[in-house]
Design brief:
The protein is α/β, with parallel strands linked by helices. It has one domain: Alpha-Beta Barrel (TIM Barrel), CATH 3.20.20.140. Helices cover 39% and strands 13% of the residues. Strand 4, helix 5 and strand 5 form a beta-alpha-beta unit. The longest helix is centred in the C-terminal third of the chain and has 16 residues.
């Protein structure tokens, strides 16, 4: 199935999307209101946080809109990256530019005021990210007190944590009063896959109705690599089977580690097409791309 209008755009400008390998369209025809639940924007004019290790090239809202046209998605979740610490200004500006089809995920610490949380909510924020894998501002000790404060807003905690640390924090995660959204498959080691102790904890949280998983960052975890990322398939299907109504998809554009040369640049069209490998039927893909994001982010 093809996108006739988009095909003309892609053929006329094969390098139209920065930070994405290839120029072809996905095979998957994105349903109306399909959501990319994980992307970032970068701008060198925004001060980099002390200790930040990811300082990729600029990636703007206009750059991202070209990716949306290529993929056929319309809704998006903009995530404050570790590059900017607790400065959410660039994320908020991106959400404002993208309008009602956008939501945001912020990074804060315990010093954040109630007024600031209210301002973030008004700006489209619907969750707090804790990056304990590569962050420079997030601390596990902040998670519980902040979770208590954001519960009334209906927000969730978005978590990126090394699997070994996740196992250490099992009791903490299970007593949080908000939902937890695990970035990038929970960063599970694909060699261990569903047998990894951290995967068992995520599955327990999924079974309890407390957790969500983002099918994002396959290119970060896979040892097999593009184009099929076949060693991720078992884990992806296990999550989808466990909680079909609490799985979402994200591109992770602009692929910061790839843009800095740490990984091969992925093809976003192929990343979207992985859902054809991992799901059975259009209804399942519509849940992941439309219905589940609408429930989680309030579209």
């Amino acid at each position: 199935m093809s996108h006739p209008v988009l095909a003309v755009q892609a053929n006329n400008n094969p390098s139209a999307v920065p930070f994405s390998a290839g120029s072809g369209l996905p095979t998957l025809l994105a349903p109306e209101n399909a959501c990319d639940c994980h992307m970032h924007v970068y701008d060198r004019r925004c001060p980099v946080a002390p200790g930040a290790t990811l300082t990729p090239p600029d990636a703007s809202v206009e750059d991202y809109r070209r990716l949306q046209r290529r993929l056929g998605t319309s809704r998006v979740v903009v995530v404050t990256p570790s590059t900017y610490g607790t400065d959410n200004s660039l994320m908020l500006d991106a959400v404002a530019q993208l309008g009602e089809c956008a939501r945001g995920i912020a990074v804060v610490d315990q010093t954040v005021s109630d007024n600031e949380l209210a301002r973030l909510h008004q700006g489209g924020v619907r969750g707090l990210r804790f990056n304990l894998a590569r962050g420079n501002s997030s601390a596990a000790a902040d998670m519980e007190p902040l979770a208590a404060r954001i519960a009334a807003l209906g927000w969730h905690i978005q978590l990126l944590m090394p699997p070994a640390r996740l196992v250490e924090c099992e009791a903490l995660l299970k007593r949080l009063p908000v939902h937890i959204v695990f970035d990038h498959f929970g960063r599970i080691d694909v060699a261990s896959g569903t047998a990894h102790p951290a995967c068992n904890i995520i599955r327990d949280l999924l079974d309890s109705g407390k957790a969500w998983v983002k099918l994002s960052g396959a290119y970060l975890l896979s040892q097999e690599g593009a184009p099929d990322y076949g060693d991720i398939k078992e884990l992806a299907k296990a999550y989808i089977h466990a909680a079909p109504d609490r799985i979402v998809w994200g591109s992770d554009w602009p692929h910061a580690v790839a843009s800095m040369g740490e990984r091969p640049m992925p093809d976003d069209a192929r990343l979207l097409d992985l859902l054809l490998d991992w799901t059975e039927g259009e209804a399942a893909r519509t849940r992941i791309l439309v219905d589940n994001p609408a429930a989680l982010y309030g579209f």
